[in-house]
Write a structure and sequence with these properties.
Chain lengths: 162, 657
Amino acid sequence: MYFQMRRDADQWFKDISGSFATKFDLYYLCLMAGFAARRKSELESASGTDILDYFPHEFRTRGSLIISLLISTELSVAGIDLNERDAVNRTISKLVTPDTTSKLADEGVRLMNRYASGGFEALIEHFDDRPRTIETFLRTYHSIIERLRSEVTASAMRSPDV
Amino acid sequence: MSSNIVLLGWEAENLRCPNHKVNLVRTAPRSVYAVTLLQMPNGTGKTTTLSLLRATLSGGAESWPEDKIREFQNKHAKGPGRFIVRVAVDDTLVTFELTLKFADGSVQYRTTLGAGVQKGFKPPANLRRFLKPDFVDLFVFDGELATRLLDSQTTRARAALDTLFQLPILARVSETAEENWQKHAMTVSAKQEKGLTQRKNRLVMLEQQIAKVKKRKKKLEKDIPLFKEQLAKLQVRYQAELGKDKHTREELERLDRNKVETEALLKADVDKAITKLRDPHALLLEFATEMVSLKSNMDRLKLPRSTAREFFDELTNELSCICARPMDDDAKSAIRKRAASYLGEEQVGVLNTIKSDVATHCGDEPSRAKTSLDGDIKALASRVMERDRILADREAIEANRLAGGNAVLEKLKSEVDERSAALTLLEDELGVIEGAAEDDEADDTNCLKALDDKRADARKAVAEASNTVTLKKKTEILARILASAQDAARIQLKDRVVQETNEKLKSLLVREPVELADVDESLILKGQAGASVGQTLAVSYAFLATLFGRSDYQLPFIVDSPAGPLDLNVRPEVAKMIPKLCGQFVAFTISSERDKFVQPLAKAVGNRIQYLTLFRGSKETRRLYKGVKKSNVQESSDGALITGQEFFERFDLDEEA
């Protein structure tokens, strides 16, 4: 199964995509926004483009870290405490497999695609306009990721039961 | 069927290059020279000649605006300019003649095929797909094209692959099948189904809209580069006028130098930040904390469990459980159910790798990566401010000069502004055409993606109403098969092209190795976003050599400054590769390119090489070819073309200056 990028993201990133070595970079930026905001959205196969089914060279050493973030985010969103041994085991066995190059099971990739899609929506909402220059984008993105997480924390504090 | 396309020669008259006639055919034995080196000193009109070669071979001048046409005018000559190119396709002679009428800013083409002369640019059918502006750029080649092959914003590399291996034929078969279905659907009587006419009309309207938008897209794709070119020229004139005053010029030059330096540093800052950004724990401290917490909790709970799922699976095959109770169906079912919450042996291995990577990257000091990225982003912000300050200083000087009441400057400034605004409008329009579809697009939208979706819906509606659903389904299946055949063919061709290109690159770039990773829309290098000028040129040569070598069509290869940007150590390797690149190689060179290039090239092709030197003629330059055999000298009203290796090699850089 492929990492999938939303088609509308291509258009949104078009002025800065040339600054990145791979399209997976753009996917990663959306994914991290999704993890920071704990936000995922449905991505229908027709509205996404296949990128890769493995972590590209630039991310090879980071693949494990991305997977561990997927696990911890998913556990947190599902309200599973890290002490719940069986539930943690079940979640991991659903997401991870030794049989793919990425070490992610189909369910793991599907979930990553949903977080990347949700992250893209979060980026659109927080950027005034689509990015035109890479130097401005990097600075804004850097601060927006912090803001997305603060919003999650603030919302959790407002409704501690959720 | 394979074909051999050979460039026989060309003539130029009343143009910005000297009047000249180049013949690429040798008399005994009668065949085309494998290599022709045409040495033209700077200022002789090398770029003009190459542009005209491209335009004459592609029909591209038909879209030139008047001012671009007039740029080719020789100010000292009267009458129209003329550029004639002779080509042989297998045994058929084809002549393309381009006339530039400077008086009214128009162009005219004439094509001679065998004995028949036709008005217009009319290449024979088997040549048509090659003699188009985009493709001609591939075999009449310069450094700019080399850069474009590696530019991710362009589709040159993929287009070259598609055209040369005729992949679009599959799409055309698909279109023909589609037309066939439409013909059937449209001939069904309107009485048969209620609302059929309405559905047909919508489909026709959408087809018309798509055709209209595609035509507009094609025009925009042609106009935008022309607008950019004109804008660049206007900017050069504006900058020259702005810097007429010595003090202002020096100040502007200083600021421009600073700007170039700052932008280079900014680019390095951006690349550094992008690399660090790829560490999730550098983005957010909470990411680091979460990863570390996941790892340490797993350690504490002894996860993954050392007992793997396989143990329980095997246990259910035993007669009794390890607690000595009999293994009945209930026990088997309970154990299998619970085994699912244990990980398999290999999954355990994956998880241990993840834990170990988390410990390596975030274990000791989780905040280090974040602190480092924060610092880089701060440095980036300072650099942007520095660059903006330089730009503001420049703008202030401009504003000051404009306030001084210089009418010429004001006029140029307003022309630059107008042209920039017009260019932005065109680019925005193209952006809408190529952009993603919005949710609520109308049928007369200009967004091609939305129109494609709408057309698919409309086709389905017509098929349902006209009882041609089966034919439509068959047509769709055929389209899918053809599309997948095209994808499969492209993937296989890409793999082979990448492999062969890399083989060539290994011997070309020993000291500065670079590897091709993929041919997507553009050429993608392995592990690096950009390449040096020399690397770019070498990669392009290797790619085109592979492409041309695998095609059924032999094409000439005409190159501007083939060795110019290459390091001296790479030149002999490129020179040795050139005879394998194509059957005919024509290079426009300057004298500084001879070093380490011409000799290995001559050695590689034997005596099938021709040396030509073209320069502007005057009384002073006649002394240059004093003593050269008359039969080797071709004089025209404003230039001289000398044939021969000896003259070619002694033609000196000093003379050029």
